[in-house]
Amino acid sequence: MTDTQGQVFEVFHQQARGEPHIHVGSVHAPDAEMALILAKEQYCRRQACVNLWVVPASAITATSYENDDIFERATDKSYRESWGYKTPKTVKYEGKDSDAAENQTTDPS
Fold first, then answer.
1. Do 45 and 57 meet the contact criterion of CB atoms below 8 Å apart?
2. Which of 65, 81, 88, 95 is 20 to 30 A distant from 54 in Cα terms?
């Protein structure tokens, strides 16, 4: 039996310059050039698009769901995140300007 659909290509598009490419779907095509044409017709007709990527699905390597322990943190690095610190609800300012402000509020005699 022959393959009539061709290779599977994953399609990524970019809506505006500077934005990330987002996976939008896949197309079947005999080569990358035809995959670009089909992707343009399929995914860029109704929405803004400034750039397209097509990647052969066979070129993508992914982790398996059973191997989820590789995403666990080895050590606690909460000190690198802002939520890792506790901040007081009020902060008292103690600087040179605070002494001058206290002297101005006293009796000027």
1. no
2. 65
Q: Is 46 helix (H, G, I), strand (E, B) or coil?
A: coil
| Residue 8, strand partner residues | 28
Q: What is the pTM of this model?
A: 0.60
Classify residue 82 by its DSSP letter: G
Q: How many CB atoms lie within 10 A of CB 65?
A: 6
pLDDT of residue 106: 52
Nearest Cα residue to 42 out of 22, 25, 19: 25
Burial zone of 24 (CB within 10 Å; 0-12 exposed, 13-18 middle, 19+ buried): middle
Alpha helices in the chain (DSSP H): 32-43, 96-104
